[in-house]
């Protein structure tokens, strides 16, 4: 960029081609007031407050849109400029109705602040005022458009950043206002209640209902959102131990100015009246309050009675890295068992296994902010805008910048609206689809031969396996026309860099590991690995599921994916932990519950998991827990699982503790304590350490602060070797970060893969159908999804009144053709029946679901979807086939016929 010298207020300053006067001024700390400008938005020059005087110009110019030129001399606060700004503010105030004393944004109103700076009091002008009724019918946002100054920030933010297009300007002239389609309330519009428009609004025209009348915060604490794997940075505004609002943090941030509805408005579960506040012990069949001393003594005594193969520990992807580290260490060093697992077994176990086989490490290869730079995005098995909303925004941004988007999904998800090509394949046919694409790439010589020769192995055997996937047979299996398969292959192979995004639509199958391997094969075949904007990018569902895996909350590996079966590695941990460790890998989560059902596992210690709702064939999981001799559950609410426990230990939420989360892109970020623990609850790491100390292991569990746990993690985990709280205070780090001087690794495998020989491994595949397909008795196929408005089993989000208002119950999404054939109308209560059980829920007739396929979430205990799902396991990763099972649907008033 060329350097340009200009003068502002007598100071000579340097700028670059493309910069505006406002850019240079802000870069040098020179204040120019604005109301319509935001660096994240397009420039419209609507407010006119940023006018400046440029010598040689006949008129004042808007600094936000005027580019600098060599030698330009500018005055930002000349008498002419100040007088003009005062007149503009007076005109805005004259049409800005309402009392500042009654406005919730009064103390932070940008218009009021600028008026005060310019010493503007009552306006001199009599302007016809606009009056609009206050819209207060949605759960989160109040709209008082009488106060709107038409700055366009809300409209531009909704369209340019969120990509929802829920609002635009309506009417003309004096009646102009931001409005939804047909000027309906927000709740009847496409609005997703992300809160971005509210955060952008400079006046009280838009305000958060959650924060109203709670006063001004006494402090703001930076932390990380506790929901999905995006890892968004947020500020919690706190007043007198109460979280009163949430705002975004843009520095060193994944999300910038954006959040989703859960991040903006879904955190008041922290103060819910049903929070567990004291330990509970089962006496005479009832859970009764107890002291910490009583509860911890009972847990320590009872767990000490069992042999290592009779006990298991289940960790949590919602808890911090430090807490997951401590509890897996407790299982191995205190209980002497490798029977430790967590919910990754139900979501991304195939990612850990499949990518370890092909690449050497099971994690997202690239960074979230690189998605916008991809030339092609293949989104397969991911409903990104619902499950990972901030990553969904990156996809939309890439498309606006010209990227090609291929969506492979049986359902007509929102991303289809933005796609160049939609592959609507039959559920469970991903291997056939991907191998068919690779057959085209090889046949048409679109592969990256030099990358394959230099960086990969076993290509010949893989190439031979493609012979079984001619496009005619692939079309028959997948239901996708062969012309579309060929087009998808050509787009992906030629529009480099190409990025693959996937989630549980790929992993939750009895062949989930094969699905992941197929994706890895495709990326290696085209050389889309180790480069910016490319890669294989699994999207983790929980806030810390990546970290829980990293910490060794798995039955076969210690922290850093170091094999428990390797004698040298095991000896290293035995020395560090000063104990003998079990030799054989332990049981997976699904195997633990099955062993409990058969009486082999007699005691389980759960931390923050709710298998009664999350496990497939959930009634089996519930029956297994009821057969246990001893069940201890550590959580923040009395979940469906906790109600079965012998002892319940009250943990704290993310807002009440220190620690770290590792998001889906391997980014380790600080979680900071904002308020004191509610009631008599305690951090999960503290609880586990107290149990360990009572069981005679005080010297290994005497941590006084989570930072000490992280120091131990760094000593024992090569990929976390350079991570410490001191460094994280300066900014987040992406692993591998092997030492204190290492800057972290945004992109994996730039030079070589993580396998022992440094090569990526092609793996031949065969197509295997799902374990259960529709038949005459169960003619429909059930697949599962997540709702934007809820999270996992609803433990947290179902406690948020506003989220329940937006999605209050389970819905059975069914295609109109299927509904017509079954005599089902939209809104009818229906019974969904599988070979394992039945649930009742409300029908939603929609073309989003294809003919023959129904879709449900698993957020609602009243309609526990996982009663229906198939526990058939992937033989390698042991993940259940949650995404495909055969069902029948009937009106609820009908009698079920088995």
List the helices and strands and how they pair.
Layout (H helix, E strand, L loop, with lengths): L2 E6 L2 E6 L4 H7 L23 E4 L6 E2 L10 E3 L3 H16 L15 H8 L23 E3 L9 H10 L5 E3 L6 E3 L16 H5 L5 E3 L10 E6 L8 E7 L2 E7 L12 H5 L14 E4 L2 E4 L2 H12 L7 E4 L6 H14 L5 E2 L7 H10 L17 E5 L3 H4 L1 H12 L3 E5 L12 E3 L6 H14 L5 H7 E2 L1 H7 L5 H8 L3 H13 L3 E5 L1 H4 L4 H14 L10 E3 L6 H6 L6 E2 L3 E2 L3 H11 L11 H9 L5 E5 L3 H4 L3 H9 L3 E6 L11 E4 L8 E4 L4 E5 L12 H11 L11 H11 L8 H4 L4 E2 L25 E2 L18 E5 L16 H6 L4 E4 L1 H7 L6 E5 L4 E8 L7 E4 L13 E4 L6 E2 L3 E7 L7
Parallel strand pairs: 1-5, 15-16, 15-25, 17-18, 17-21, 18-19, 20-31, 21-22, 25-26, 26-27, 32-36, 33-35
Antiparallel strand pairs: 1-2, 3-4, 3-5, 6-9, 7-8, 10-11, 11-12, 13-14, 13-27, 23-24, 28-29, 29-30, 32-39, 34-35, 34-39, 37-38
Keywords:
898 residues, alpha/beta, Ubiquitin-like (UB roll), Alpha-Beta Plaits, 5 domains, 6-stranded mixed sheet, 18% strand, globular
Proportion in β-strands: 15-25%
Strand order across the biggest sheet? 14-13-27-26-25-15-16
Shape: globular
Q: Which structural category fits the helices and strands?
A: alpha/beta
Q: How confident overall, as mean pLDDT?
A: 94
Radius of gyration of CA atoms, rounded to a whole number: 29 Å
Tally of contiguous helical segments: 28
Low-confidence stretches: none
Number-wise, the strands total 39
Percentage of residues assigned to helices? 25-40%
Profile the largest sheet. Answer: 7 strands, mixed
| Gap between N and C termini | 74 Å
CATH hierarchy class name of the largest domain: Alpha Beta
Q: What is the domain tally? A: 5
| CATH-defined topology of the largest domain | Rossmann fold
Q: Architecture of the largest domain, CATH level 2?
A: 3-Layer(aba) Sandwich
